[in-house]
Amino acid sequence: MAHTTKENRDIYYRKAKEEGFRARSAYKLLQIFESFHILYPKLDEESALSILLNSSCSYCEHNINKNDFIAKIFSSDHTKQNCCFTGADSDSELDDYSELGLVDYVKIKRNCLELGRIKNVVDLCSAPGSWSQLLSKMVHEDYETLKNACKKLQTQQEVCKNLVEYVNIKPVIVAIDIQQMAPIEGVRFLKGDITDPEILKEVLQLFIENVSRNINQAYGGEYDEKLRRNAQLITCDGAPDISGLHETDSFLQSYLIKSALSVCFSLLDPDGCFICKTFFSSENTPIFTQVSSFFDYCTIFKPSASRSSSFEHFIVAVGYKPFGHILNTPKSQEIDDEREIDSELKEIIKAAGKVISWD
User: Fold this and answer.
1) Which of 37, 68, 128, 164 is least crowded, fewest Cβ atoms below 10 Å from its Cβ?
2) Of all residues in the chain, what percent are helix, strand and coil, respectively (each to 5)?
3) Which residues, 6 or more positions from 265, have their beta carbon under 8 angstroms from its beta carbon?
4) Which of 150, 142, 167, 31 is nearest to 82 (CA)?
5) Whole-model pTM?
6) Rounded to the nearest 10 degrees, how much is the dihedral formed by the CA atoms of 66, 72, 76, 82?
7) Which are the contacts of 113, defined by CB distance < 8 A and separation ≥ 6?
């Protein structure tokens, strides 16, 4: 009998080899997306048309009549809008997630300049790059589907110019790591420390240049501030060198989470998502309280692709609020004494240029 290694017996290791991912960890992120309806299920043509037809702004309300086309969409069986945070498969799931702000229906109007799609992503501690590979694949597929739907709609009716501009702006996937990473198609890699302000400035400049380049190519126009977007999703699969001592590893990892959270303060758009590795399994920890203070919904999740022998879990946070929810923290997470709020986190926020009331 041929020798069988432990890796070859691992289904996710084999799948990664077969599907071209650099590491099995890509399936951890995929399972997070599937469980929390982030970029999942994949956008289809009918969903894309629903999103486009139910967008509006001051320009199209005065110049474009969409009623006939909207009626056609509403008359179909497709009653849910597949946006970056949606995708529940049953009415009960819809009810559960609607309270968390994870579900939107087709009838909900969106601004033509903000369709709720994930276009810009920052992958922290990205090497060797399996998460960046998956992010690039899913975000670019979403972009192509929406763009093709917009082209089809343009053959049937006049489409708002703001909507066309938004749809045609290409995604930007930025990977950051202090170690070198092999190139990935559709991903811009920056080598450096995620806490380096110069790296963060470079990421912001990439977002601005992307808008300018796309508008110039399509219309010969110049950069328009109204089209500017930061990141809608920030991920971090990084971890310190493992010592084997759980308490020590968890403590060191908490500082990495703080660093990733500080990137959110600088780069994440309001209502954006944050996914980060942790070695805590309980929500009753200071670092979880700090992260959840800035998001509408936050939990700890262990995907099945993560080995059962590993302590790793993932913080999944949805609905970023730049000014936080310090004053509206649930009773189970109340902070009775201001001194319990980590003073280092305050300094991180100040350094990011955010003004937050801690009173």
Assistant:
1) 68
2) 45, 15, 40
3) 322, 348, 349, 352, 353, 354
4) 142
5) 0.79
6) -20
7) 57, 162, 163, 165, 166, 226, 227
- For 262-357, list the strands marked E by DSSP: 268-278, 295-301, 313-320
How many Å apart are CA 20 and CA 259, to the nearest integer?
30
Domains and CATH numbers, the chain: 11-66+111-327 (3.40.50.150)
C-alpha gyration radius of the chain: 21
CB atoms within 10 A of CB 224: 13
**Alpha-carbon distances of 84 from 40, 128, 142, 227, 319, rounded to whole Å:** 7, 26, 9, 18, 12
Phi and psi (nearest 5°) for 154?
-65, -25
How far does CA 190 lie from the centroid of its chain? 19
What is the C-alpha to C-alpha distance for residues 44 and 119, in angstroms, rounded to an integer?
Answer: 17
What residue has token string 């990011």?
Answer: 352
For 46, 142, 146, the CA distances from 149, given in Å and listed in that order, are 8, 11, 5
CB 55 within 8 A of CB 110: yes
Grouping H, G, I as helix, E, B as strand and the rest as coil, residue 292 is helix
Question: What pLDDT digit, counting tens, does each position of 303-320 carry?
Answer: 999 988 888 999 999 999
Which tens digits make up the pLDDT trace of 35-50? 999 998 888 888 888 8
Residues 6+ apart with CB under 8 A from 79: 105, 106
Rounded Cα distance between 187 and 176, Å, is 10
For 150-202, the pLDDT digits (tens) are 999 989 888 888 888 889 889 999 999 999 999 999 999 999 999 899 999 99
